[in-house]
Amino acid sequence: MTDAPPSTDTAKVLRWRDAEQASVRALLGTFGLSVESVADGQDIPASYWGDDEAGLIGARVMVRGDTPLHSLLHEACHAICMGAQRRATLHTDAGGDDAEENAVCYLQIVLAGRIPGFGRRRCCADMDAWGYSFRLGSAQRWFEHDAADAQAWLAERGLPCA
After folding, report:
1. Residues 6 or more apart from 66 whose CB is under 8 A from it?
2. In a designed cystine with 108, which of 68, 73, 81, 152 is the match (CB 3.0 to 4.6 A)?
3. Of 76, 109, 69, 108, whose CA–CA distance to 94 is shortest?
4. How many Cβ atoms from other residues are within 10 Å of residue 2's Cβ?
């Protein structure tokens, strides 16, 4: 799949309203998740960060048209990476430790590669524009050269790591 061109600032990150929504819904559905949209101007239920950031309630990822696609994927990956018991009580704060957070970031980039019009390169650029911080200075460099721990974490749990 061809990656879309990277963004250069937060105003240009790919938003839910501009994404291939059916593809995203189908992809997340394979993990037992659904995407629920709220109307523009409404607060996003269970958004940890507020603003336009995605929210989590159980197996539902809550979004608005202006929610960045990388935010939707990040929150979805939190739900994917946790066990069923923790997901059953999930509301707003996914919790988890640093190792899980790294795995979540890695998985969101892997899954971005399965979304037409998004792709890994664009996801990494959008993450960088948004202010994610990685040891090697960019999401893509971290993903390609410094994420063996995240890959191992995902592989140990039978989750996609390539």
Report:
1. 15, 16, 17, 40, 52
2. 73
3. 76
4. 9
Q: Which two tokens stand for residue 86?
A: 């923790």
Calculate the CA 125 to chain-centre distance. 13
Helix axes 69-81 and 119-130, enclosed angle (nearest 10): 100
The pLDDT of residue 115 is above 70: yes
Give me the residue label for tokens 């970031």: 105
Full-model pTM: 0.91
The answer to whether residues 34 and 25 touch, using CB atoms and an 8 Å cutoff, is: yes
- CB-side neighbour CA atoms (13 Å) of 84: 2
Tens of pLDDT, residues 69-97: 999 999 999 999 998 899 999 999 998 99
The predicted pLDDT at position 9 comes to 61
Q: What is residue 43's predicted lDDT score, i.e. its pLDDT?
A: 97
Cα 87–Cα 51–Cα 79 angle in degrees, nearest 5: 15
Q: Which alpha helices (H) appear in 7-138, and where do they start and end? A: 21-29, 69-81, 84-88, 98-112, 119-130
Helical pair 98-112 and 148-156, crossing angle rounded to 10 deg: 90
- Residue 94: per-residue pLDDT: 92
Whether the predicted pLDDT of 140 surpasses 90: yes
